[in-house]
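Q&A FORM
Asked by: J.P.
Topic: structure of Amidase signature domain-containing protein

PROVIDED:
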Amino acid sequence: CGSSSGSGIAASTGLAAVTLGTETDGSITCPSSHNNIAGIKPTLRLTSRAGDMNRWWAVMFHSINIAPPVIPITAHQDTVDPTTRSVTDGAIVLSIIAGKDPNDNYALAQPPVVPDFMRALDRNALKGKRIGVARRVSINGSITGNHPSINIVFEEALLTIKALGAPIVDPPDLPSAEELINSTRVVMVDFKACILGFVPYVFLYLLQNPSDVRSLTDLIKFNKDNPALETPVGFEDQSMLEKAEATNGFDAAYFAALANNRELGSPRGLGFVLQKFNPDAVVSPALGLITRPAGPPISGSSEPVGPETVYPAPGLPFGLSFLGTAFSDFDLISYGFAYEQETQTRLARKAFPAAIPRPSSRT
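REPLIED BY: S.T.
REPLY: Here is the structure written out as tokens.
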């Protein structure tokens, strides 16, 4: 359920007060959904991916705990995001980590003033706001892969939003829905480039590298040579790595795909919906296709909704996502907070006792 599953689990079970994750394509919305917590996927550029890069390189040999840079799958999509037990905690964290950073060119292209996201915590924020429902990419199981039970609880969530004073705009669909599923070329090319660009420098500072992995080619070979360790039953698929390795860098096909992604994401995607139907935000189950955009910067937040009644496990949580245009993070957080305060789903649906860890100073 995404590369930040550990962050989601740690936040949900109380192993950390708050956690950070990174999202390329669902790695915040999915763990937040399944772990019954709040996740904020900020606008690309709002948070830096650089970490404390200069000091990190300087202290590699001295085992000092300095945050390393994020090694992105693609710089065009990856964001650093808070995953927390409440929207309030997420707003606090985002207020701290948002802002310009000269070590990340993307993070320089943002509004001059970062909002105090704590001021977004308004229980009445949904009153009078138009909330759109892109049904075809939200509840069509052939597109989302979601179980029909999710749709039932999603309809109940829409009634709650309406009761909070928000007119429902239904259904403003995305004309690019099916094409979004296959828009992966940019990710594949960027991933290979990032591996080639970052990993050699990381390995340069390792005291030992017994696997001798220094490139994507090496990684694929290592996985094949160590099946018991790297490709156990159910995890044999290396097709994404192999597709990335087969790309030819920043060629004409790459730039055509990049332009197409931007087209799918805005003029024929969420931007189309926001412009034509004029909602203040679009709402979707957190695992709907619309919550995993591959294109221009958008913003989204995910809040707990309720259980999946049958599949993939009885009572497994799933979330609700509010999405909007770039740098609408403040408004989306306010909508998520209003919904959270009305429903209190996380407090109402605690894990069974054996699943709740009891950490202590000894552990």
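FOLLOW-UP: The CA atoms of residues 154 and 283 lie 10 Å apart.
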